Amino acid sequence: SVFLGSDAYKKGLVGVLIELFDCEELFMYETKHEGTQVLRNAWIHLLGATTPTWLKSGFPPESAGGGFTSRIIFVYSNSPRKRRAFTSIDYKTRDRLVRDLNTINKLRGEYKWSMKGRRWYEDWYENMDIQKESKVLLGYNLRKAVNLVKVAEILTVCESDSLVLEEKHLVQSLSVLDEVEVDMEVAVKAIEKSTKGSDLDIIYSVIREAGEIARAVLVRKMSYKHSAAELDELLDTLTKAEMIDEMEVEAAGGGGRGSKSRLMYSMHSGMDDKEER
Q1: How many angstroms from the chain centroid is the CA of residue 244?
Q2: Which domain holds residue 131?
Q3: Is the domain of 180 the same as that of 271?
Q4: By the 8 A CB rule, do 184 and 76 touch?
Q5: What is the domain count for the chain?
Q6: Which parts of the sequence are annotated with region: Disordered (predicted)?
Q7: Going by C-beta distance under 8 Å and a sequence separation of 6 or more, which residues neighbour residue 94?
Q8: CA distance 259 to 251
Q9: What is the pTM of this model?
């Protein structure tokens, strides 16, 4: 089922999630017919999955600057993990995990800092340069300290019931976040991207997949979405950005007087090296 649809902003659901994320001691929500709903010490977790295409349609572009997406840790990869045709279930491990989760569910109380953990976090927090990081992830970086502690708390209860934040869990949490951030920009850019930007990506992908493609073929492929004039404008943008090359070649069977030529497009000669970097 869909929890966050395109109308989530209109219905106020996103605003509620933002407030719950901040873990206030009391959360109060006014309803039209049921009075005031009160939650105490709420700590919300949302584990979801979607496709890159839905990110663009499900989140309005303005959401990237509205505080919601900066509170999400997007785990993105452009390549699938190792594929296995047949898998088996380790029931003993499954039973141990279920027992451990039940134990974690019964834990109560406040997390405390170990001396080493507190010193490590203090040093990291005071020396973190959020301006040095990606401008696309600026909002996320402003809240990275909160995410680091939350992930460290989860890692802590995976090993112990002591509710003590140790240095090793904070270091591990930072390592996890740093690894995820490598590709997180792709997800955030998908939300921020304009319609034109999305169209450029589609055309570039078609050319990259073909290796080399004639303008006439490209016009036919994209006719469901763009007129020839609109396509030429987008191709001109990709050419000027040095993402593709435009070539004029002689049509097959030509060579005589009045022979025709046609336009061909291919990836820019330096794009392979850029993408590898």
Answers
A1: 26
A2: 86-192
A3: no
A4: yes
A5: 2
A6: 251-277
A7: none
A8: 7
A9: 0.65
